[in-house]
Specification:
Blueprint lengths: L14 E5 L5 H13 L15 E5 L15 E5 L6 E5 H7 L1 H10 L6 H7 L2 E3 L13 E2 L3
Parallel strand pairs: 1-2, 1-6, 2-5
Antiparallel strand pairs: 3-4
Helix pairs in contact: 1-3, 2-3
Length: 142
């Protein structure tokens, strides 16, 4: 028996639309990360990008479950002295919901060049409209 390894020229990518309205942020991010990584396909290979392109719409209607989740702080550093910045998840959901969803999904992808390649296939929009109709995306419900 031989181990199957997906070759880059054999991979067929789809465009999927995920509606984030009313879904918990963590569960949405976990499902989208699985689609970007390609774990839902039988040809999944850990060291090859076998995932699909994913469009997330209605990111402004995502739900932060739990009482403390809205007050949970997100930190980042500008790499300058005294450059530590932070904001609560609730404030980020109000101001930039697409960035909050992108950041959560990126944290669930591999932290290397392969993960960066997968992250490039993610498109997140706060509203219900997206400019990718030419790719004929199909709706994905979980």
């Amino acid at each position: 028996m031989k181990t199957f390894v997906a070759k880059p020229e054999e991979i067929q990518r789809e465009w999927l639309v995920v509606d984030a309205a009313g879904k918990p942020l963590g569960r949405l991010a976990q499902e989208v990360a699985k689609l970007l990584r390609g774990k839902h396909k039988p040809i999944f290979t850990p060291h090859v990008d076998t995932g699909d392109h994913v469009i997330v719409i209605n990111a402004d209607q995502v739900v932060l479950s739990g009482n403390s989740k809205a007050e949970e702080r997100i930190h980042w550093h500008s790499q300058y002295p005294g450059g530590l910045k932070s904001v609560t998840k609730g404030a980020m959901l109000e101001k930039r919901p697409d960035r909050l969803v992108e950041r959560t999904i990126k944290g669930m992808l591999p932290h290397n060049k392969l993960g960066a390649q997968m992250y490039r296939k993610l498109k997140v929009y706060a509203g219900a409209m997206h400019p990718h109709e030419a790719q004929q995306p199909r709706a994905y419900d979980f």
